[in-house]
UniProtKB/TrEMBL annotation:
It comes from Carex littledalei. InterPro entries: DUF4079. This is Uncharacterized protein. It comes from the Eukaryota. GO terms for cellular component: membrane. Keywords: Membrane, Transmembrane, Transmembrane helix. The chain crosses the membrane at residues 62-79, 112-130, 151-171, 183-203, 215-236. The keyword Transmembrane applies.
Length: 238
């Protein structure tokens, strides 16, 4: 009996030997299916963002927005009350609405007319102003002195008249009239044109004002070019 017990003990398998290591490193990796799913989701999000950007470009959401100075938007609050102007223009606007004019004419008629005035009368008038100062030909200088003030006076008249046309176009389209950089830059430009038209009367007593007149004229043209850009932005916004 003792012998069987000893043999059974001897035949029992030895327990496995466990070897301990000083460090154990466990690396977990995502399964292939999870990795592929994440990659597919990333591609879908990229395509969706590109589609949204393309839709914005198609609708013109980003046209000229980068040049709008927000100080002019705030300055628009300083212009005279729009309610008073709207009440004055109201009967005329109602009359225009009964004419059933083409939408494109109401929308772009004012910008088209003002572009002609700016580049034809203002541009050529500015060129003649430089010829008065720089030309050495007495005949050319005399013609420039005669035509320069006439062109700039015409520019002032048509810009002032065009302001009423712009207000009418906005009211006809049911849009606010004094809440844009275009309105503020136009008011600044007309104010400086008024000063510019007074300066020549003072040349005799103050010859140094001729230089100021030339610098102011160039500045006014720059302001009206910016004004035109704001007008294009405003026209594309509705």
């Amino acid at each position: 009996m003792q012998m069987l017990t000893t043999s059974s003990v001897l035949l029992r398998p030895a327990p496995p030997k466990i070897t301990k290591t000083p460090f154990s490193l466990v690396i977990s990796r995502p399964s292939l299916s999870t990795h592929a799913l994440g990659k597919k989701r990333s591609v879908q999000e990229t395509v969706q963002l590109e589609t949204q950007k393309e839709e914005k470009r198609k609708h013109g959401d980003l046209v000229l927005y980068s040049i709008a100075p927000y100080s002019l938007v705030l300055a628009s609050k300083l212009l005279p009350g729009a309610d008073i102007v709207e009440s004055i223009f109201g009967p005329f606007v109602d009359l225009i609405k009964t004419w059933s004019l083409p939408e494109w004419l109401v929308h772009w008629g004012h910008p088209g007319n003002m572009a002609v005035v700016l580049f034809a009368m203002g541009g050529y008038g500015t060129y003649l102003g430089f010829r008065i100062r720089l030309s050495k030909d007495p005949e050319e200088k005399a013609k420039a002195k005669d035509l320069h003030p006439k062109l700039l006076a015409g520019m002032f008249f048509f810009f002032a008249l065009g302001a009423t046309g712009g207000i009418t176009a906005l009211l006809t389209s049911n849009k606010p009239i004094f809440e844009s950089p275009h309105a503020v830059s136009g008011a600044i430009g007309l104010g400086l044109l008024t000063i510019q038209s007074i300066l020549p009367a003072l040349f005799k007593d103050y010859p140094g004002l001729r230089v100021a007149h030339g610098l102011l004229g160039s500045s006014i043209m720059t302001i009206f070019l910016i004004h035109a850009a704001f007008g294009l932005q405003l026209g594309l916004s509705f």
